[in-house]
Amino acid sequence: MDVMAAQTDGYAIEVKRLTKVYGEHYALRGIDLSVKWGDFLAIFGPNGAGKTTLLKVLATIVKPSSGDVSVAGFNLSEDAVKVRNRIGVVSHQTLLYDDLSAYENLRFYGKMYEVADLKNRINQLVAQVGLESRLHDPVRTLSRGMQQRLAIARALIHDPPILLLDEPGTGLDQQASAMLADIIISTLTRQRTVIMTTHSLEQGAALSNRVIIIADGKIAYEGPKQQDLGSLREAYYQHTGVKN
Amino acid sequence: MRKQEHMQSLKQNARIINGLLGLTFVTMIAAQFLIFVYVPTEQTMGVAQRIFYFHVPLGWNAFLAFAVVFVCSILYLLRRDKKWDRLARSSAEIGLIFTTLVLIAGTIWDKPAWGTWWTWDPRLTTTLILWFIYLAYHLVSVYATEESQGARYAAVVGIIGFLDVPIVALAIVLWPTQHPSPIIFEGGLTGSMMLTLMVSIVAFTLLYASLLILRTSLRHDADEIKKLKQYMDERN
Amino acid sequence: MKGAASKTLAIVWKDITSEMRTKEVATSLVAFALLIIVVVSFTLEPGENNGSLAASILWVALTFAGVLGLSRSFIIEKDKGCLQGLMLCPVDRSILYLGKMLSIMIFMIVVEIIILPVFIVLLDQSGFPPQLPVIALLATIGFAAVGTLFSAMAVNTRAREVMMPLLFLPIASPVIIAAIKSTGLVLSGESWGAIASWLGVMAAFDVIFLTVSPLVFEFVIEE
Predict the structure, then answer these.
(1) Residue of C nearest to A21 (CA)
(2) Which single residue of A232, B40, B208, B217 has CA 20 to 30 Å from B191?
(3) CB contact under 8 A, C87 and A60
(4) In CATH, which of 3.60.9.10, 1.10.4160.10, 3.40.50.300, 2.40.50.140 is domain A37-60+85-240?
(5) Between residues C121 and A240, which one has the greater pLDDT?
(6) Would you list the domain boundaries of chain A?
(7) Which residue range(s) make up the domain with C141?
(8) Which candidate in A21, A24, A56 is best for mutational testing of the B interface (most B CBs within 10 A)?
(9) Residues of B in contact with A216 (CB under 8 A)
(10) Per-residue model confidence (pLDDT) at position A242
(11) Across the interface, do A97 and C82 touch by the CB < 8 Å criterion?
(12) What is the mean pLDDT for each group of 10 consecutive residues in chain C (223 residues)?
């Protein structure tokens, strides 16, 4: 796909002095962040710290109040449609239609992204997330874990170079959560850039090659490349006042 | 230094507002004198016709207020500056109060004029629907789940609602009713009536401007206080 | 351009497919509209039933069924965060508006196809005036044009069930008035000429709000 061609130089994501204000409440207060192509960035932080808002800004769903954001080399405010073509999003909500089957959901989103050879792409993705046998069942009959796997397939339908994962493990049991992590790893190519917010320091640290902690709408801590879990825990407690 | 400049501009603002309030007061007194003492009683309608000198200026200003809402709503959506939202919402509130008064004045006038409290007179009916539109405008901003969302929703209703006004008026005027069309006077306005009406329109327009400035600055202060509170909460 | 059209149709297709599966919206709207017509017309004395009264009953029923259906349209999108899924799609926001508008329009037309003949029979009208489908179509376009906008708005407010009619009814009042008046005229045997100005009112409403609504839709769905 041609979307891969443009990513040899520059950053996958560049955020400068980003703020988001709701009424008088600052959700983000001056975020500066650069993510290189191929990085896997884990974002930690307590509830309401601004993690989800940051991801929603990158996903073009939330309009920034001020600051510059570019994703995949495109400015967010000028080329939102091009940005949307290059990102895939998995959130704690599945973004799937309950009354449609797994296949119909993927087909709908595939059409919205103008995916070529859609039928093959769907079969390939469904095999990857292990849902072949349930392909034609309505989504409401699938378990929460299966729905979340389908949500990942949905996010990957247009083979985006950048993946945004917003607490994808929320509401899953241990087993489903581990399965999800496996799928995330298996669907990653060397080029794919991932940003993930999560509550689980273990999972985040294991998957990522870079970590940051957000507190009160600011980046409070940037971890070194090699981070052991103990010092990450300590940093988290120090910057958020919450044990994890 | 900056603080001094700030105080200076506050003082200047206060002077302008006080001047405007004074002017409104004087004109309003003059208008009352003209309406109740100076202008002669109209022959066919009697004393009730004097309501006209409130009715028309209020109606005109309500429409002006909604036009201001329309313009400020567009500016808010384009610029995202809270000052346009404050202006639009203040103007809508005043417009809503003015339309309420127009409706009340209308029913009081209808009773002696037509013998019923409510005639489906096109202008009055349009005003009633306008009243419902701007009630919805107010409610949608109150019931929104989050403040800036409420501001956006209100702006959208402020735009859609104002564009709707001519179509509402057209549909209502086209409706054939058995009620007499609103001839306000036979033989038109005499010189003294015209003068009274004009002074009254000026007085109510000044009142609208004063209320708009006061209400908007009150909103501004409320926002400032919220900001301070937020700041204090975060420091603790 | 071709892409935009096929994506608009994709939205319509998924709305219709999921409705075909549950038939929730169509059934409840038809039942609701029928109930209003039946309950109200039952109270009419014989001979009391003239064209303009029948027209009022019809459009009260269709308007309230429309409000109900319009509210549903975005509740479906809100449930599993699907509206976000739509917002992530690489299309202009106005395409999302258009897709949702068309699908709600199709639902309402289906409901009207069922209701109109039943209405003619229940209210004992002398025949089916050929102008009625045109009146219904113009009114439905107007309803859907502003209704899609307000539905997206109401779903994000507290007291969403109350907000929808409060927003919709006053704004759509010219269409409701025009539909009632022109339906009354054609039921009393009047010709096209007699309803021309009413069709004009509805057409003006449709054109204005089909132009403005897609432009402001973006501000309604953004977070």
Answers:
(1) C223
(2) B208
(3) yes
(4) 3.40.50.300
(5) C121
(6) 37-60+85-240
(7) 2-221
(8) A24
(9) 234
(10) 76
(11) yes
(12) 87 94 89 92 74 91 94 88 94 95 95 93 84 96 96 90 94 96 90 91 97 95 86
- Could you give the number of structural domains in chain C? 1
pLDDT in tens, A42-95: 999 888 889 999 999 999 999 999 999 999 999 998 899 999 999 999 988 899
Tokens of C57: 């009953």
pLDDT tens profile A184-208: 887 777 678 999 998 888 888 888 8
Domain extents in chain B:
2-235
Of B125, B142, B174, which to mutate for an interface test with C (greatest number of C Cβ within 10 Å)?
B174
- What is the Cα gyration radius of chain B? 21
| Distance in Å, alpha carbon of A78 to nearest chain B alpha carbon | 15
Kindly state the tokens that stand for C40. 């109200």
**Among candidates B145, B155, B171 on the partner chain, residue whose Cβ is nearest the Cβ of C219:** B155
Q: Is A100 on the interface with C (CB under 8 A)?
A: yes
A-to-C residue pairs, Cβ atoms closer than 8 angstroms = 79
Whole-angstrom distance, CA of residue C221 vs CA of residue C93? 9
Exposed / middle / buried, residue A30 (Cβ in 10 Å: 0-12, 13-18, 19+)? middle
Q: Tell whether ipTM is more than 0.90.
A: yes
Measured CA to CA, the distance from residue A91 to residue C139 in angstroms comes to 39
C interface test, pick of A83, A85, A99 with most C CB neighbours within 10 Å: A99
d(CA A219, CA A203): 20
Residue contact B230–A65, C-beta within 8 A: no
- What stretches of C33-155 adopt beta strand conformation (E)? none
